Amino acid sequence: MNENLVKWIVILALLLVLLAVLYGIYRYIRQVIREKVSMFSRLMFGTSDLAQGMREREREVAVTPKSVASATRLYLPSIMKDFPEFHYDEIKTRAENVLLSFLRSVDEQNAALLTEGTDELKEKLSLKIQMLKREGQKEHYADLKVHRTEICQYRRLKGRCSVVLQSAVGQIHYLEKDGQIIKGRRDLQEQTKYNVELIYIQDRETVENMGDAGLALNCPNCGAPLPGLGAKQCSYCGSPVVEFNIRTWNFSSVTEVR
Predict the structure, then answer these.
(1) What is the pLDDT of residues 158-194, one digit of tens each?
(2) Contact assessment for residue 201 and residue 162, using Cβ atoms and an 8 Å cutoff
(3) Which CATH number applies to 65-257?
(4) Cα–Cα–Cα angle for 92, 95, 97, nearest 5°?
(5) What residues does 140 pair with on adjacent strands?
(6) How many CA atoms lie within 13 A of 222 on its CB side?
(7) Whole-prediction pTM value?
(8) Domain ranges for the chain
(9) String of b and e for 137-171 (b: at least 16 CB within 10 Å)?
(10) Is the CA virtual torsion 176, 179, 185, 191 positive or negative?
């Protein structure tokens, strides 16, 4: 037999052996990876199929409400001390209605759907709708559901008080342009949170002009400081306090919390 031919046969045989070894190593590594992935998937998602587990996890996240910063028990006693006529259940319902009507206003690009709010909130809503129209976009909100609402903050500022309520909301939310979805999904619900701020202004002129002097609340009869922003009577002389400069609670902002 030709010596060169024998040499090529040997080389070919060695190459076949090498390929067989490499294939065996590949099969072994693939099997190890599969086992590790399967183990990880079972550990994380309770199923050996990682893709299926991730899809199930995505669906689970889509229907699980977000937790809210619940500080109602902490702040409500202080609010009630300052404002004895503060009706929390009524305020919570109003806040949820404002939130839902705000989102529906954006969805339908109609600011008149907002149930109530300050001029500032109405202006913010109108500007948002105008911006969307200018960009040729439509922001959609559907299947809205408020799961829970709690007070998350109470602040006494210069000339006003601020209560922030936080709501956990389920929604379908997506941004559309020229018939194409550019953000979000139409077929999957998402869970998010919104802050709705409620303000109580003592006197608009005081708020705008007092600067750093702060807000001084005094009895019109004896001049003694009043015990709280919602006081109806002086605790020193007993004189009634006429709330000629009091404004009712109103909603000033709606903000998504990420």
Answers:
(1) 767 899 999 999 999 999 999 899 999 998 899 999 9
(2) no
(3) 3.10.450.240
(4) 110
(5) 174
(6) 11
(7) 0.65
(8) 3-62, 65-257
(9) ebbbbeeeebebbbbbebeeeebbbbbbbbbbbbb
(10) positive
